[in-house]
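## Example record

The block below lists the input lines for one assembly entry, exactly as stored, with component labels intact.
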Amino acid sequence: MKGWRRLGLLAALGLLAGCGHVQPWERGRLASAPMQLQPGGSERFEQNSEIYREGAAGANGGKSGGGCGCS
Amino acid sequence: MFLRATPWICFFFVAVARAEEGGSIDANILMNYYGQDGEHSPVTAGVGTEQLTVVGGVAEVNWQPVSGWRVNGELGLDNVTSASLDRIDLGELRVSGASRTDQRIFGHLGVERTLGSQTFGALLGLSSEFDYSSVQAGVSWSADFNQKNTTLSARFNQFLDSVQLIGIHGGGGEDDREGEGRTNSASRDTSTLGASFSQVLSRSAVGSLNLEYTHQWGFLSQPFQEVTLADASANVAEQLPGKRDRYAAGLQLNLALKPGVVQRSFYRAYGDSWGVHAHTIALETHLRLPTKRELWLFPILRYHTQTASDYYGPPGAFTIADPYFTADDDLSGFHDEKFGLGLRLVQPKQSSSLAWLRDVEWRAVYTTREDGLHSFSVSSAFHWGS
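Predicted C-alpha cells for the full assembly:
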C-alpha cells in the first residue's frame, strides 16, 4: 500500500514540476483526437468488463462500483 | 422496465427538437459485443463453465440549451447470455442445458453549469436487471487555471443498490432456510470520491493524475456463488465481509511524439481492504494513416497483475470455521494481458447538426487471463455533432 502511495506522490510531483505554460495558439498538436485525456467512447465497454473480471477498479475515467450485479 | 426508460427517451427527443431550433447538441451511439469462456465459474464453486456473451448498446446526448448550461443523458441496454447463471440450482427446476438470458437497462440524466472557469454538475441514474437494481446520485466540480493549462476536478457518487438473494439452491438465499423459495433482497451501497489533476506539460505532452477512494458496504457476496469447503458434505454460499475500502491512483500521459504519432500511456496502482493489490499498464500508439481523411490506427496493449484477496481459495482451502471464503477467481491472484487493434475516423467540423457524423471509432480486443479465462470484445462508437 505504501509503495503505490509513494509512486502516486512522485507522479504528482513530476507533473507539477513539468507544468508548462502553453499558449492557446500553440496547442495544435494537443487538439488531435488521440491526445484527449478522456478515454474514447467505445473503451467504456472494456472498462466495464474489467471492473468485474478483476479485483481492481477506479482512477481510469470509468466507474468503480455500483449499478451492476456483475455476475 | 420501459416505464423507467421513459424520461430518457423523452429527453432525447426534446433535446433533438430544440437543437434543431438553434441549440448545440452532441450525440453518441455506442455498441459492443463481448464474449468470454473459462472453466472456473464461482457459480459452480470454481469448477464450471464461465461462458458468457453480452450484446450492449448505449445512446448518449449532450445538449447545450443556453450558454453556460449543459444537459446530458444516456440510455443503455445489455443483453447477457450466461451459461454459468443457468447452472444456479433452482430446486426442482434445475436446468443445465440452454443458457439463461438476462437484460440490464441503465441510464442517467445530468446537468452542468459553467460559471467563469468553474463547472458544477449533478446527475441521477438508474439501473435495473432481474436480480439487481441501483439508484445513483452524483455531484462534480472542475476548475481551469493557468489559461486552461491546468484543470482540477472532484466528484462524488453514491450508489444505492438492491440485490435479490437468489441463493445457491435457487430460493431466498441465506434468509430462506425454510426453503420457501422467497427471494428477499439486501442492500449493497457504494460511495466513490474522486479527484483529478490535469496538466498541459508542453506543446506535445499532456498528463493527468486521478485519485479515487471507494467505500462499499452491505451484502457484498454474490448469493448464488458456491464454495466447496474441506469439512462440509455439500457446497455452501460464499461469505464475504460487509465492508470494502478501495484505493486507486491512475496516471495518464499522452505524448505527440511527432506529427501523426501519439503515444497514450496509462498506469494504475490499486489496493483494498480485502487484500487485493494490483498494478495495471495500458499502452496505445496512435498512428495517423496517409489518407485524405483523418484516420488513426492504433494497437492496444494492456497488462494487469493482482494479488489474491485474503478470502479467496481453491476448492477445499477453507473450513466451516472460517468466517469468510470465496471461490471467485476474479478475487484470486493472477495476471492478464489484453491485445487489440483500434481504428478512428475523425472528420473536420462542418456543421453542428446531428446529420453530421463527426467521429467513428472501432476497437477489437482479446484478453487472456492466467487461469484460462479468455474474452473477445468488439466495440463501435459513432459521434454526431460538434
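The radius of gyration of chain B is 23 Å. The CA atoms of residues 171 and 180 of chain B lie 7 Å apart.
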